[in-house]
Task: inverse folding
């Protein structure tokens, strides 16, 4: 079928769950309840590093309404961690044993009849700590004789990772210009709207059901089994509607999942724990602050000859997904530019701060900020602009990046050209900048991102994604997928794919997703993998259903299978739509010919490449206005060239890009978790300063369609990579406006004013 | 704590509820009346997810005491559509892709409802100002603004 004949693919279609959501009918984990349900709450450590001497729960247990309390002593004391292929990354107890390692570490949990009783009980639990010296900064962690946070990590390094390809020193010698700069990124956090919540209940056979806010129900199942000391097949994990994840819930089980389960077992009643916003900002997973020292050598014509990069990650108290982040900061910076001499040395340190894990872009925002600010500096020194550098070095179809990413399709050059042309990049760069009150500037940022990782974090024989389709005799189709819709719209995209293949309207598809008992295994929603992996699995399953149906219809109509088409609930010979068999009749025909056996087909997908099946690209041209009196930056416009292969639903793709620009703006300009001795001092939406509606720029998105050979209907990822170009494009635009380079995020009004004053006095460096 | 019986009118239905002095309107809506469409995002009046209309005006139900809501007409998201007929704003949010995770959606819709009823043809600036108290982390607000614009015309 030619691309113009698709019925639903490529169309701007409403999401399958949008109606439920606008009517307030969509139920999230915190909205659920069960008869007899208790309210669970968690007691957290007030100290960043301390020995746990004893916990006395007697007084709390005597409080009326308190039904159960659990501490580390009530647990099998088994450590877990999402990257369970390596025992050394399993460094966390679901409830503290012997020691606490950050302010917010989970110490005990209580279940009571209402929140008031639970809260009061928390205050009555007596915990005796012995404070230990704590470390917060990389410098403190590196110091000889520094306090050791984990016994297995004598140097406080939780992960190091190195890449060496080609000969960097030779590359630098062959370069006409070599720049070395140090960039620093801040502590930032997902700030999703829905606070994490979990509801646990046990049946009479000792089976546990946990409904929880997660991106990875199968990992939750596995980690619960490990830490509770039971078999995973006695645990059912269900993902209800999720109010945004952005990576925070991609590392499987969290302590509140475990505590809800254990409290429920002990109390013999369902227990729900809903985290407070304060807990979210204080104790939940967050993004790694990274210090990157980046050295890049180029020829006069802009060709990149060599790159050397050292990245130091402040990982916080536990591994979470951080060991992978350490790798990705090194691999992601080999997109979207090609170079053959590359050395990367990444080190992740334990500190007594909340653990850092994955957040949208996962290592990409940090290294792409550094890369494109540096490339913009290099371009300027060479008398070029970033557009020219990007066109010179951008990866093309068939190329391989320095970290080994195989580029299956690349629309990068088109992205550069389109964003530059539509954003009038060069023309506006020449325009008048400064009227004394405000200064105008334009900048560019470039990115590329894998469409999903090619490996599980645990040992399993399961395919990366699987989909089961059951076609029903009334013509409806039941679709079962392990993929987790967390608000990004995977339920809709998977439905769309199956509807397209089977020639059915989307409302005929009944989707069940992310329920470990009902749906086939899936790695989960992370690494921007769902459209390609679960989409391909759905495509295979739907094609399997179509084949079975066409087999019986071809016999019935005496037609060749290859001549049949399915469209609008009818199956007919191409060109003769008047002679048809309805989809429902075809299913019945199938059942008659198969002794009533239901038409059940499965489809599975494994990435053909261990790194990723394919890569997306994006280029942003950003226009800003800097208020010279207040130091405020107004982002005026973002012009986007974006290659996600074929956008299966352009409206959904745009939504991802627009959301990424919002999050990337916050990252560039305002968002920052501030700590004092390990204590988060701005644990609130207002304190954290994520962008609000009246700060948003005009966003002009241009889809560059590449028809990727690896993706379903040619699609690649959008949800994560789209954040990467944002921060460098803004920071480069600020430079264009006021002539000051910022190498540390976020670029706050205070920093800008300070730098402007320094510059005015004339003795300032060009950087801040 | 002592409880007081109040009468509260929600989506045109009157309810008698016994409340403590520190019970919020949000708790009454969700925990007593089972209206789970009103979301709790922060509990301190910062994010706007709990927005409901009180006599047509948007209020933050998480920092409104239930006792103070007695005698006013409350509208939650459950009362926004008329049976099967969605409000034009709800339709527009669906059509324009203004809904992603959906957690901010109920509050956002009610804020928008008051705006379009008050202004009839609000400008883009007015729309942005009006929803700046409703935090959304998914959409970048672009399609939400487009949806509200579609309804004003």
Result:
């Amino acid at each position: 079928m030619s691309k113009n004949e698709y019925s639903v693919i490529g169309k701007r279609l409403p999401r399958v769950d949008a109606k439920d959501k606008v009517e307030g009918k969509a139920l999230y984990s915190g909205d659920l309840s069960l008869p007899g349900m208790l309210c669970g709450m968690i007691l957290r450590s007030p100290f960043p590093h301390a020995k746990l001497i004893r916990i006395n729960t007697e007084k709390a247990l005597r409080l009326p309404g308190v039904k159960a309390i659990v501490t580390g002593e009530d647990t099998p004391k088994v450590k877990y961690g999402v990257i369970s292929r390596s025992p050394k990354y399993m460094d966390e107890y679901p409830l503290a044993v012997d020691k606490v390692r950050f302010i917010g570490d989970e110490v005990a949990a209580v279940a009571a009849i209402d929140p008031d009783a639970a809260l009061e009980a928390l205050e009555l639990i007596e915990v005796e700590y012995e404070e230990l010296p704590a470390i917060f900064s990389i410098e403190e962690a590196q110091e000889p004789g520094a306090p050791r946070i984990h016994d297995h990590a004598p140097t406080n390094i939780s992960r190091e990772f190195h890449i060496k390809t080609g000969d960097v020193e030779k590359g630098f010698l062959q370069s006409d210009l070599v720049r070395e700069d140090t960039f620093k990124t801040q502590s930032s956090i997902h700030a999703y709207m829905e606070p994490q919540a979990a509801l646990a209940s046990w049946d009479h056979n000792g089976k546990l059901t946990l409904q929880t806010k997660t991106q990875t129900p199968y990992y939750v199942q596995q980690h619960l089994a490990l830490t509770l000391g039971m078999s995973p097949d006695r645990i059912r994990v269900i993902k209800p509607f999720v109010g945004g994840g952005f990576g925070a819930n991609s590392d499987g089980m969290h302590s509140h999942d475990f505590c809800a389960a254990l409290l429920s077992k002990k109390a013999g009643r369902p227990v729900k724990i809903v985290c407070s916003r304060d807990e979210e900002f204080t104790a939940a997973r967050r993004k790694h602050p990274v210090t990157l020292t980046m050295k890049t050598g180029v020829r006069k014509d802009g060709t990149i000859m060599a790159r050397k990069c050292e990245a130091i990650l402040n990982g916080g108290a536990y591994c979470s997904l951080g060991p992978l982040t350490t790798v990705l900061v090194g691999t992601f910076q080999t997109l979207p530019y090609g170079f053959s001499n590359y050395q990367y040395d990444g080190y992740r340190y334990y500190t007594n701060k909340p653990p850092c894990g994955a957040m949208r872009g996962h290592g990409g925002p940090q290294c792409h900020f550094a890369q494109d600010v540096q490339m913009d500096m290099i371009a300027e020194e060479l008398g070029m602009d970033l557009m020219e550098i990007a066109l010179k070095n951008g990866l093309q179809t068939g190329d391989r990046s320095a970290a080994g990413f195989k580029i299956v399709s690349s629309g990068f050059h088109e992205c550069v050209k389109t964003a530059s042309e539509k954003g009038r990049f060069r023309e506006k760069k020449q325009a008048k900048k400064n009227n004394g009150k405000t200064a105008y500037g334009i900048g560019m940022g470039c990115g590329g991102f894998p469409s999903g990782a090619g490996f599980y974090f645990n040992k399993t024989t399961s395919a990366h994604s699987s989909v089961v389709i059951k076609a029903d005799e009334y013509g409806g189709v039941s679709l079962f997928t392990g993929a987790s819709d967390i608000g990004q719209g995977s339920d809709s995209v998977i439905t769309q794919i199956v509807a397209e293949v089977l020639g059915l309207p989307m409302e005929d598809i009944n989707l069940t997703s992310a329920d470990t008992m009902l749906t086939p295994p899936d790695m989960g929603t992370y690494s921007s993998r769902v459209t390609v992996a679960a989409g391909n699995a759905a495509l295979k399953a739907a094609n399997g259903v179509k084949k079975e149906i066409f087999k019986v219809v071809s016999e019935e109509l005496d037609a060749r299978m290859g001549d049949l088409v399915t469209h609008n609930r009818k199956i007919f010979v191409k060109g003769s739509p008047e002679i048809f068999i309805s989809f429902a009749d075809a299913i019945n025909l199938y059942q008659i010919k198969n002794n009533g056996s239901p038409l059940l087909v499965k489809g599975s997908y494994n990435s053909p490449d261990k790194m990723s099946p394919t890569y997306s690209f994006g280029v942003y041209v950003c226009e800003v206005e800097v208020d010279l009196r207040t130091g405020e930056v107004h982002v005026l416009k973002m012009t986007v060239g974006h290659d996600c292969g074929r956008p299966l639903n352009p409206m959904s793709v745009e939504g991802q890009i627009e959301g990424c620009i919002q999050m990337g703006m916050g990252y560039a300009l305002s968002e920052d978790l501030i700590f004092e001795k390990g204590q988060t001092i701005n644990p609130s939406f207002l304190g954290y300063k994520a962008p609000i509606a009246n700060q948003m720029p005009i966003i002009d998105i241009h889809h560059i369609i590449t028809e990727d050979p690896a993706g379903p209907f040619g699609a690649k990822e959008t949800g994560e990579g789209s954040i990467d170009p944002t921060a460098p494009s803004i920071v480069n635009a600020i430079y264009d406006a006021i002539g000051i380079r910022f190498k540390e995020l976020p670029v706050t009004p205070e920093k800008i004013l300070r730098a402007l004053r320094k510059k005015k006095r004339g003795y300032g460096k060009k950087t801040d | 704590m002592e409880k007081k019986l109040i009468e509260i009118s929600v989506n045109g239905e009157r309810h008698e509820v016994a409340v403590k002095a520190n019970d919020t309107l949000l708790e009454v809506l969700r925990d007593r009346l089972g209206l789970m469409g009103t979301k709790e995002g922060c509990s301190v009046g910062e994010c706007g997810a709990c927005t409901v209309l009180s006599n047509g005006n948007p209020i933050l139900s998480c920092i409104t005491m239930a006792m103070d809501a007695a005698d006013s007409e409350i509208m939650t998201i459950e009362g926004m559509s008329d049976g099967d007929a969605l409000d034009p704003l709800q339709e527009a949010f669906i059509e324009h892709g203004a809904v992603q995770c959906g957690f901010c959606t109920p509050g956002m819709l009610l804020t928008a409802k008051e705006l379009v009823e008050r202004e009839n043809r609000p400008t883009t600036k007015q729309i942005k100002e009006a929803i700046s108290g409703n935090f959304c982390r998914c959409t970048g607000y672009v399609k939400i603004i487009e949806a509200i614009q579609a309804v004003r015309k």
Q: What stands out?
A: The mean pLDDT of chain B is 96. Chain B touches chain A through 54 residues (CB under 8 Å).
